[in-house]
């Protein structure tokens, strides 16, 4: 099947007809996956396409409702992780699976201790690990508690853990999402070396470039099913993107957008600084302006300060230094900083990145979620703090109509709506709830986990707000989205604005270089 | 491991709690049988004792009054995302407040001023006792479950110390204060009804019942009709979302616990102003803990809580009657039943859900399929 | 001088006697909480095991049977705890409340039905009780000059459970920090998903921790009935389960630190017992020593610790959250 | 029918309430076929309900056992003016209530003497229940008796607590006794209700002597129980059941046989003839008024 498939060996992994559903969600439908031994196999697909689910089934975390699995040619049952480990499968999970207060060494040997006495076990394991670290080039400080290790080292620790257990088939679920470009490069060197030593790699990633760089073959998933399965040599980045989304990706921008010059500055930010409890700077001297009639995109690998930037601008987080001017009022940090209520008063609306945790209260009904943040408006609250529920429900019904939220049921529990519809409801609220339209709109990950139809709809609404004279800031980890929407692009890297590009100058290569830490001049 | 089972709303809110209650009753019946009594006789006597006479009904409602207060206290905190186990201590301190003002001003103030003052004192003292754990939770992240347990013990030590060393009636041997002046006596229900020309036997049931019902309506309005309650519930469900909406989670934690403590403190009004007319050591008698059970089976809703309080009031009164009537029966059986209810309706509330879900599915296959299709 | 030494010796002995159930319960709570299961039911488990020991002791007149009954009840309650909270993801806090309420009622109901003594069990004859150990050693220790009386009175002549409790502290420490099982338990309390991914059964580990927890609670209950007293008395645990919980938190979920906390609490209790009714020196304003203040001190100290004024206590990260896994 | 309401601790406390129970049972046996009502208080809120319920049922007389019931008796007796009530250990001044109190100090004097006579170390102990004047009265009489028998005797006294919980805390009682034993005390008198059980057990475990209270508790640990200061609550209840004297205050002392020390087969080996002679002589002197035992409750102080 794949070019590097060694002669005669059975495939390392063969999954056939895998089906899995969670309640109403069909996470995997009739999935077939064949991975040749000693190759690197990529799996790509949008959020929620079912990639992690498929790998969790392979690792014994979940049980498939239908289908069969063969490992190295033998039909197997994998009822639990123990059996998967015994079959030589190792998994590096999308979220770290580490016990923070324990040492790296203890984390590695947990569940595979060679002796019931810890002292003896540690000695044996340490010796083996030192050899393993030499062989693979994966360096980890074994005696530090995991909580003291930086993310890159934790990632290496995870791989080491899998290899220590004798993994011949290594699943990596988005291993680079939290890594810096340098760390990613280092990781890839290691992965290539492992492959050369005969380990079969299964790599899930959203970064198609990584697939092209490392993998021998790739499987594309969409809505739980495989839509493309091909050797890497027979495909291209564009073809993969098209397969992922299900139609030609329209990188093109809407016609009317360009020419008009932006207006007055509506939001000005200077010198934002914020470091987390560990003292790691998450915002490092961030300054930016938002002008009427423009969409500014913030690009960057997630975890480079975008979340904190949105939080600071919306008043949810008070930075340690910096100032912000909004609606003619100035706020300085530390001391008097914007709070979410003041932000709304000053006509700043905010669609949070994490709609499940922030955008709505899942346990509440849709109308209760729909007024969140605007529940103090005069038209919703009467004398003595009495809530005008009728008004709230009617408003919600109107917004649902305007933004095509399905089902149109204001009484339904918020959690019962699908991701895309939840997102539309939040967007509708932020656009329509204020008494006058918002001047500044902050949007985090506007279309994460949202289907194509909804993406188009949402993009259209954002443009309409811009055209009406609003200033829109879009944070997205999807480059395509940035390219489709923004008039101006800022790239964030390690908490700072690494550079700014006018949309005409934006190429994926230029953005990529900025995201990887180059300066603006080098990138251009 | 089991995964959460979805049930239709009617089954979830109506049927499952009844099944859990039935399981608790069934186990209790077994215990009753083991100690050699006839469960059927016990149940009939219990119901007769609780509802069979007007005087029995009076006692039932009197107990229910106290449980309504403590149940509401647990529920308000719960909606704010907090598990307040400190109702017991807050009630004790609330009673201390009632006693303090009743003893200090009882002789100088007329009842129209004295009684509202007692109510205010009960609420203020109860709230104050809840304020410390609340503040520690809000600002220092100290788990409110542990701190409120600790505060129960501290409250009981405080009450004992104050009573023994400062408040005890001089010369007396019992650890209790002198009786409150007449103006600090909340009118009994028999007096109120006599005013309306209705004859009612003399029972501890007093005007607090009306306060408890008002409190239930008030809590309902707060939680589901007032902005403050909306914000409180938002924090309870999702502190992050609340923060996003400009609601201050800390302020809501304080608010929830203060209201909760104030409600628990009202036990002092029912028990001291209404019945005992003096402060004594053990007047709360576990009502704070009973409030947890009441809130659990009342599904944290005021209406449910009033009904559950009535159930527990009936159990207490029926239990007392049983203890009079049936040799060998002790009221501790009611404590046992209460524990079993907390077990089945609280900790094991979802154990019966999978089986129930299968039954429900089997009974209405078409509806279930349709619902599934709508989702997909 | 002599009087002071005797007083100190007595105080030390009393501290050990009073601390023993606290130590056993604190270790019980520690094992369960280290595996991620909150145990607010220590009080109830201890009370019901105490009753079992008292009742079976009275029926059979045999201490091994009494002890076995206590152990069976303790472990059974822990398994119920596991069934509700580990297998069925019930609320652990509510479960603890339920166990304690059931125990408070059921012991009296059964006690009255079986023994007709207001909930007490009949006094146990000496044969059913755990007698003092090392009396001769105590006499020998007393011969040591100056500190002899303190050591002789304080350390020797206790019953076996006192020494067992003390020995279990390093035992549990060793289990947690020096054995494979301990590593796994600690990991389960912190990140059960990781333990699961490592091919271990979270379910089995938590049940295992709870089983040990039941044994230790049962020992504490048995101690109250078979050693410290000679029968079961209603509500005889008198909040010791909660005090043990406080001691465990005060010891920041570590066995040796928890031991010190238990000894401190036991010491305070022993002091409070002796200071009952004692007049304060005139310099301190006279009046009586406020014994209630001393009794409340452990709880106050725990609140202060939780508030973070004495350095932060870090609970196991997954404490209280049931581990739910889709299949 | 007559009725009796026991206080917390219950009718089988082996002590005070149990004595009342024995009296009621004796009446029942002698009354031939007639029964009586009884109830054990287990929480504060029940007191009034129980007593009012008895009154509603027409019980007559209604005997409240224990000082803690005084205020309840007062309240309910006012409401049910036609029925007779009685209170033991306290005084309620109402025309339909008979109050029965005991001269505990006289009985305590005798057992104090016995303690001093039996002590080898010259140190005797007292463990009281709740710290109230009534228990101080026991303590004061005990001290006087001990000093009367041996002027050099040292008396160590402790109270268990200040709340009703002190009546039922055997663990604490045991600890207090052990603390006293460590100081050299070898005879201890417990006037502490259910707490006493712990004191006696500690005495047994420590090889010391103990003195019981209220009921004859000698049988609890033969060879350990030196004697018991019996307070004939049984006689009081028996008499009240037979006939009440409404509005009267009945005081029962040594003379009336209301208090005494107990001698039976369980402790006869511990009480020497000499001891018995001395104690009986003192008893006669007290009855004759030749020895005046100071009553703590007369002026709330122990002056002798
Ligand atoms: N435990 C679960 N319970 C319910 N639904 C689930 C569960 N896990 C996954 N899903 C749903 O199954 C679908 C597939 O999820 P999965 O995590 O496999 O996606 P993915 O392709 O890995 O996405 P991502 O790129 O975001 O990691 C999604 O709709 C998700 O919401
Ligand atoms: N981890 C999870 N646990 C439980 N339910 C989940 C989980 N993830 C998703 N769901 C539920 O599954 C359903 C589908 O979620 P998802 O976010 O994948 O949206 P979707 O089906 O892709 O919707 P749309 O097509 O509008 O984007 C929703 O009802 C959601 O609440
Ligand atoms: Mg995934
Ligand atoms: Mg989706």
UniProtKB/TrEMBL annotation, chain A:
GO molecular function, one term: ATP binding
ABC transporter domain span: 13-248, 267-519
Superkingdom in the source lineage: Bacteria
SMART domains: AAA
Pfam family membership, one: ABC_tran
CDD domains, sorted: ABC_Carb_Monos_I, ABC_Carb_Monos_II
PROSITE patterns reported in the protein's UniProt record: ABC_TRANSPORTER_1, ABC_TRANSPORTER_2
UniProt entry tagged with the keyword Zinc: no
Keyword Heme: no
Annotated keywords: ATP-binding, Cell membrane, Membrane, Nucleotide-binding, Repeat, Sugar transport, Transport
UniProt xrefs under PANTHER family: CARBOHYDRATE TRANSPORT ATP-BINDING PROTEIN MG119-RELATED, GUANOSINE IMPORT ATP-BINDING PROTEIN NUPO
This protein's name: ABC transporter ATP-binding protein
UniProtKB/TrEMBL annotation, chain B:
InterPro entries reported in the protein's UniProt record: ABC_transp_permease
Membrane-spanning parts: 12-37, 57-78, 111-132, 144-164, 205-224, 253-273, 279-298, 305-324, 336-356
PANTHER family: ABC TRANSPORTER, PERMEASE PROTEIN, GUANOSINE ABC TRANSPORTER PERMEASE PROTEIN NUPP
One Pfam family recorded for the sequence: BPD_transp_2
Subcellular localization: Cell membrane
Native source species: Pseudaquabacterium inlustre
Protein name per its UniProtKB record: ABC transporter permease
Membrane topology, as annotated: Multi-pass membrane protein
Alphabetic keyword roster: Cell membrane, Membrane, Transmembrane, Transmembrane helix
From TrEMBL, chain C:
UniProt xrefs under InterPro entries: ABC_transp_permease
Pfam families: BPD_transp_2
Membrane topology: Multi-pass membrane protein
Record carries keyword Transmembrane: yes
Location of the protein in the cell: Cell membrane
Chief location of this protein within or outside the cell: membrane
Membrane spanning residue stretches: 6-30, 65-86, 93-115, 160-177, 207-226, 232-250, 257-276, 296-317
Keywords (A to Z) from UniProt: Cell membrane, Membrane, Transmembrane, Transmembrane helix
Protein name per UniProt: ABC transporter permease
Organism per entry: Pseudaquabacterium inlustre
Organism phylogeny: Bacteria, Pseudomonadati, Pseudomonadota, Betaproteobacteria, Burkholderiales
